[in-house]
Specification:
This protein is mainly alpha-helical. The chain folds into 2 domains: about 50 residues; about 100 residues, no CATH class. Helix content is about 55%, strand content about 0%. The chain is built from 7 helices and no strands. α4 packs across α6 and α4 crosses α7. The N and C termini lie far apart (about 125 Å).
């Protein structure tokens, strides 16, 4: 019994000489107490960032500097190469162009609808006096055109020529001009076309 206890004690006892050698800590942390104190203050130099050239992505080679700087920051964040930067710039340019084109088409369609709505509203309000009022307003436009040569261009913008208020205004101007000239309530007496034809000429969108 004593022999077994003695043997068991010997089996469980290890020494620095007979036991398994302890594994040394080879992890050099580079601290002041580590094995490489000289490396404690050494820092890895950051990799030099690429200065991207976006000119090849555009036909005219013109690049907005502010946009290029912002785009460069994003590309540096993902470590993009010069080739990747150019391809992404091409994609962004094409996407932006398509977006602007789609917006412009929608804007023009919305404007045309608005102009048509103006004309429909004017026809509804004037009713049976529509043709007469528009014809009279065309006389007013002719009177104003003597002082403002580009009045027709102005009326073609933003659907003004179809607005009820504008047509009534020019009809009123025609009346005032007619009273000053004693010209039969402002209607042009010396003309080679009818008032209806003149209205169609001045307001083609109204005659549809």
């Amino acid at each position: 019994m004593a022999e077994e206890l003695e043997q068991g004690t010997n089996d469980n006892t290890t020494s620095a000489e007979s036991g398994t050698p302890q594994e040394q800590n080879t992890n050099d942390s580079g601290t002041l107490l580590g094995s490489n104190p000289d490396g404690a203050n050494q820092e890895t130099a950051p990799a030099e960032q690429i200065k991207y050239d976006f000119a090849p992505a555009f036909e005219d080679g013109v690049v907005d500097e502010n946009i290029a700087n912002e785009f460069t920051k994003l590309l540096h964040g993902v470590n993009a190469t010069q080739e990747q930067a150019v391809e992404l710039a091409k994609f962004g340019s094409k996407y932006g162009t398509n977006l602007v084109t789609a917006y412009e088409e929608q804007r023009q369609q919305a404007e045309q609808k608005q102009y048509a709505d103006y004309a429909a509203h004017t026809k509804e309000v004037l009713g049976a006096k529509f043709d007469e009022t528009v014809a009279q307003a065309s006389v007013g436009v002719e009177a104003v055109e003597k002082e403002i040569p580009n009045i027709r261009e102005i009326l073609s913008q933003n659907g003004l020529g179809n607005r009820l208020e504008v047509i009534q205004l020019f009809a009123h101007i025609a009346n005032m001009a007619g009273e000053d000239n004693n010209s039969n309530n402002g209607k042009a007496g010396n003309t080679y076309i009818t008032e209806e034809e003149r209205a169609k000429m001045l307001y083609p969108s109204m005659s549809k």
